[in-house]
Design a protein that fits this description.
Blueprint lengths: L9 E5 L3 H12 L3 E5 L67 H14 L6 E2 L2 E8 L11 E7 L5 E6 L1 E4 L11 E3 L4 E3 L1
Parallel strand pairs: 1-2, 1-7, 2-3
Antiparallel strand pairs: 4-5, 5-6, 8-9
């Protein structure tokens, strides 16, 4: 429940990876109304593996990423599963799934889906929705009740939607746009 001194807020969480899902759960537990905007077709963020990387634009010029992950097919955890889960929803071995102590990325995605189902988070997640802008509602106007404008667009829609929130949590991670080098050569430099 929201504390007596804090009223319930309307909060936008951008990203439905591990951080976004945990933030959404905690905010709702505190009594806030939460909307999660996720640009992909499913939850998981970095852990939503797609083997189709051939069409990816490495310079990030395409506003809709075809692949939103830098993990690879054979990736396994280098940390044991015991420290990867939430304290109140441990990352346990499940019958018929990857039982290794250092499981695959697929197993962690399944854990995130189980987490989402257990805490009933799906009802607040809007998939295939990319955020294009976040900013203060009345930029430059001092206010004690700051509101945030979030502009988003569904993948197959031409229409941009503008919503106003009391708070915004940005849980987009840092692997969505590649960091390409600028290579200095003897006679030329090549910057990507």
């Amino acid at each position: 429940m929201a504390s007596e001194t804090n009223q319930s807020k309307n909060v936008c969480v951008i990203g439905a990876g591990p951080s976004g899902l945990l933030a959404a759960r905690e905010l709702r537990k505190e009594g806030h109304k939460v909307v999660v905007l996720e640009q992909n077709h499913d939850i998981g963020g970095q852990w939503l593996y797609d083997p189709n990387v051939q069409e990816e634009d490495p310079l990030g010029r395409d506003p809709w990423l075809k692949v939103h992950s830098s993990i690879y097919e054979s990736l396994r955890f280098m940390s044991p599963r015991e420290i990867m889960g939430s304290t109140d929803f441990p990352f346990l071995v499940k019958k018929g799934r990857d039982t290794r102590r250092f499981p695959s990325h697929t197993e962690f995605l399944l854990y995130l889906k189980d987490f989402c189902e257990w805490f009933k988070l799906s009802e607040m997640i809007k998939l295939n929705t990319k955020v294009h802008y976040v900013g203060p509602l009345n930029y430059g106007v001092p206010s004690e009740d700051l509101k945030w404008v979030v502009r988003s667009k569904e993948n197959k829609s031409e229409e941009e939607v503008e919503q106003v929130f009391d708070a915004v949590v940005v849980a987009t991670g840092h692997f969505s746009n590649p960091r390409l080098p600028c290579i200095q050569g003897r006679w030329t430099s090549l910057c990507f």
